[in-house]
């Protein structure tokens, strides 16, 4: 059980700052997901918490104790690695017991904890196998088990599902969620997969280029993204974002179309964000965005229309109902329902 | 395993021919000669020889000098293999920790391997020659009565040092490669599991190095048994007395210096049996403890 406090955490590599001051409090039992594109510093951040990377500036506190200068083993954390990092010469049982043996735990208790974790992760039939005789999903569970038996203050997971196939990934995702709910342990989870991020997290840290762009619940991140980057990164298909000119409460779209919208700022250039699902087809006499479809992907329950704003080279994606008859070349007129638009400053990308 | 099928029957043999020729001329033919000569006795002038059955073997095995050589060989080989491997492993682990100039250190470490055995022997001989050796004087200042020309144990120490020094490079290379093949994340996992560096080395790194270590054990044993002839010849010529006369050196001494071809050939055959038995033993019993990733 632990809370974790990051205070203006920074990391330099050879004079180059790669983590630019991250501050956040992780409450006891919270599931926090760090999400971002590759190279955004999310793994580095996790490894700093683990103690595998040095801290250039700022502090990390675990249970109100500054751990900056503590070795990983003194921080009372467990970590699951992307490639699992199972000890290849040890059986599953030995892999799980390794840390407990080092802690000089009595053998009976080690056996009991390993048995408990094995039961929870359905690993009992494989306890005496070596990792190479296991499938990817089983290895992943052993890695989880090795972290679990230590009953640490906090779990750190570094893209634990990225080496699994799609089906297994969904299964393991649910299992991790269950695990969090049964153990109630603090978890810090790194992923680049937004589905994992959205489904697992109590709170998300969306990172970009070493900066925490937004720290909020998945709902908040989706509904009110703090920056243009977050808006574009979370959500699939991605949000439509383009530059509009505001003139007296009317947005002048690419192609010169005029769209009156509620909540526009004073006259200036802004970036307008509209989610594909926030586009209603409207009649020709209603103000809207004229879109010429280039292709339609039908997925069953719904369909995605990919087109251009008429008279411009700005691409736009629409989510259409599964019953749609829209086809390539067709012209649609769409408008966002009231209050479903996102506005970002065109220079800083921050939400307005 | 993928099988390559050659369209032509002759081509594979042609491709193998150079290696086969070398093996036949330099390994099988001399070995066959050794077998033949080991059951013959030549007259003093080398003009005729007579078949004597196993008499040469009986004579050799009852020769106290031969038993002495066997003992010297065991001591010498164990010391060389042990020191060459442990020192190389230690250096390979240390080099991993170097931040700047890693490549430079590695290159330096590999140099001794390029030195011919006889030259390596001479180097050590010059350094430790009791009358003009650069390092013999400081040893004597330390109160050690240094004279490998008279003291058998000191002579042994000298040839062991020279032979070890030369082999460290080779072992070092393999250990460095072996260490690099161990994923960093395993050590990170161990660090998080609470293992100290030392504990992680003995429970993770060392077990994962066993394939390398086993390979080097076989190679080093063979090296210490055979390839150290040049060093012994250059440094001590088997002396003082017979205190550094190994089995290989005795084969040479009896055959090419004393010209007792029958005895020498019998010794060669015994040596061959020993090496085959030793290697078989290593594969049979030690390899079981090797973990291949």
UniProtKB/TrEMBL annotation, chain A:
Stretches assigned to the ABC transporter domain: 4-234
Keyword Ubl conjugation found: no
SMART domains assigned: AAA
PROSITE patterns recorded: ABC_TRANSPORTER_1, ABC_TRANSPORTER_2
Family membership noted in the UniProt record: Belongs to the ABC transporter superfamily.
Keyword Cell membrane part of the UniProt annotation: yes
Name by which UniProt lists this protein: sn-glycerol-3-phosphate import ATP-binding protein UgpC
Organism: Pseudotabrizicola alkalilacus
UniProt xrefs under InterPro entries: AAA+_ATPase, ABC_transporter-like_ATP-bd, ABC_transporter-like_CS, ABC_transpr_MalK-like, ABC_transpr_MalK/UgpC-like, Mo/tungstate-bd_C_term_dom, NA-bd_OB-fold, OB_MalK-like
Any single GO BP term: glycerol-3-phosphate transmembrane transport
Short name of any one Pfam family annotated for the protein: OB_MalK
Keywords from the UniProt entry: ATP-binding, Cell inner membrane, Cell membrane, Membrane, Nucleotide-binding, Sugar transport, Translocase, Transport
GO molecular function: ABC-type transporter activity; ATP binding; ATP hydrolysis activity
TrEMBL record, chain B:
Keywords: Cell inner membrane, Cell membrane, Membrane, Transmembrane, Transmembrane helix, Transport
Pfam families named in the record: BPD_transp_1
Cell inner membrane is among the record's keywords: yes
Membrane-spanning parts: 69-92, 104-127, 155-179, 200-226, 265-286
PROSITE patterns, alphabetized: ABC_TM1
Signal peptide (UniProt feature, chain positions): none
A GO cellular-component term linked to this record: plasma membrane
Domain of life (superkingdom): Bacteria
GO biological process, one term: transmembrane transport
Bilayer topology: Multi-pass membrane protein
Domain named ABC transmembrane type-1: residues: 74-282
Entry's localization field: Cell inner membrane; Cell membrane
Keyword field contains Metal-binding: no
Its job: Part of the ABC transporter complex UgpBAEC involved in sn-glycerol-3-phosphate (G3P) import. Probably responsible for the translocation of the substrate across the membrane.
Family: Belongs to the binding-protein-dependent transport system permease family.
Known partners and oligomeric status: The complex is composed of two ATP-binding proteins (UgpC), two transmembrane proteins (UgpA and UgpE) and a solute-binding protein (UgpB).
Protein name, as recorded: sn-glycerol-3-phosphate transport system permease protein UgpA
Source organism: Pseudotabrizicola alkalilacus
Gene giving rise to this polypeptide: ugpA
């Amino acid at each position: 059980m632990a809370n974790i406090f990051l205070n203006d955490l920074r990391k330099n590599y050879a004079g180059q700052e790669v983590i630019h001051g991250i501050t956040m409090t992780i409450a006891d039992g919270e599931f926090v997901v760090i999400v971002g594109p590759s190279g955004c510093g999310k793994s580095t951040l996790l490894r700093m918490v683990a103690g595998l990377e040095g801290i250039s500036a700022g502090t990390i506190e675990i249970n109100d104790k500054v751990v900056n200068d503590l070795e990983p083993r003194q921080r009372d954390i467990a970590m699951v690695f992307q490639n699992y990092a199972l000890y290849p010469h040890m059986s599953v049982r030995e892999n799980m017991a390794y840390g407990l043996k080092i802690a000089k735990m009595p053998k009976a208790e080690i056996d009991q904890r390993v048995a408990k974790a094995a039961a929870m992760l359905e690993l009992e039939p494989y306890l005496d196998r070596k990792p190479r005789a296991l499938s990817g999903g089983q290895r992943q569970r052993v890695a989880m088990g090795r972290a679990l038996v230590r009953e640490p203050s906090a779990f750190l997971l570094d893209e634990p599902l990225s080496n699994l196939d799609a089906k297994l990934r969904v299964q393991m995702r649910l299992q991790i969620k269950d695990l969090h709910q049964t153990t109630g342990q603090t978890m810090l989870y790194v992923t680049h997969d937004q589905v994992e991020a959205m489904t697992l997290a109590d709170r998300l840290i969306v990172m970009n280029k070493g900066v925490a762009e937004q720290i909020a619940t998945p709902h908040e991140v989706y509904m009110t993204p703090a920056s243009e980057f977050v808006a574009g990164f979370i959500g699939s298909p991605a949000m439509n974002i383009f530059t509009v000119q505001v003139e007296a409460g009317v947005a002048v779209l690419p192609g010169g179309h005029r769209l009156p919208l509620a909540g526009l700022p004073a006259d200036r250039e802004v970036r307008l964000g509209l989610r594909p699902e926030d586009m209603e087809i409207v009649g020709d006499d209603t103000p809207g965005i004229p879109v010429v479809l280039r292709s339609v992907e039908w997925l069953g329950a719904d369909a995605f229309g990919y087109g251009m704003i008429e008279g411009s080279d700005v691409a736009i994606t629409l989510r259409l109902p599964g019953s749609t008859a829209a086809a390539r070349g067709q012209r649609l007129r769409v408008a966002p329902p009231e209050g479903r638009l996102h506005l970002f400053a065109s220079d800083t990308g921050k939400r307005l | 395993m993928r099988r390559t099928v050659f369209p032509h029957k002759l081509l594979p043999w042609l491709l193998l021919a150079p290696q086969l020729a070398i093996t036949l001329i330099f390994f099988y033919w001399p070995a066959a000669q050794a077998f033949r000569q080991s059951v013959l006795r030549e007259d003093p002038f080398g003009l005729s020889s007579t078949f004597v059955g196993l008499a040469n073997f009986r004579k050799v095995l009852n020769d106290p000098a031969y038993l002495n050589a066997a003992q010297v060989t065991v001591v010498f080989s164990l010391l060389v293999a042990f020191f060459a491997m442990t020192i190389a492993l230690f250096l390979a682990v240390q080099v991993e920790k170097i931040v700047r100039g890693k490549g430079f250190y590695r290159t330096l470490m590999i140099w001794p391997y390029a030195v011919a055995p006889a030259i390596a022997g001479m180097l050590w001989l010059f350094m430790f020659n009791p009358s003009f050796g650069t390092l013999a004087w400081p040893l004597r200042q330390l109160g050690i009565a240094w004279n490998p020309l008279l003291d058998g144990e000191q002579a042994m120490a000298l040839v062991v040092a020279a032979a070890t020094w030369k082999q460290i490079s080779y072992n070092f290379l393999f250990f460095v490669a072996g260490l690099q093949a161990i994923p960093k994340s395993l050590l990170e996992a161990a660090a998080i599991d609470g293992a100290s560096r030392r504990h992680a080395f003995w429970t993770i790194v060392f077990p994962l190095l066993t394939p390398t270590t086993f390979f080097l054990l076989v190679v080093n044993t063979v090296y210490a048994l055979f390839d150290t002839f040049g060093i012994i010849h250059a440094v001590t010529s088997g002396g003082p007395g017979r205190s550094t006369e190994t089995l290989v050196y005795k084969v040479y001494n009896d055959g090419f210096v004393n010209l007792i071809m029958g005895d020498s050939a019998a010794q060669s055959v015994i040596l061959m049996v020993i090496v085959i038995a030793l290697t078989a033993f290593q594969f049979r019993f030690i390899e079981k403890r090797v973990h291949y990733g």
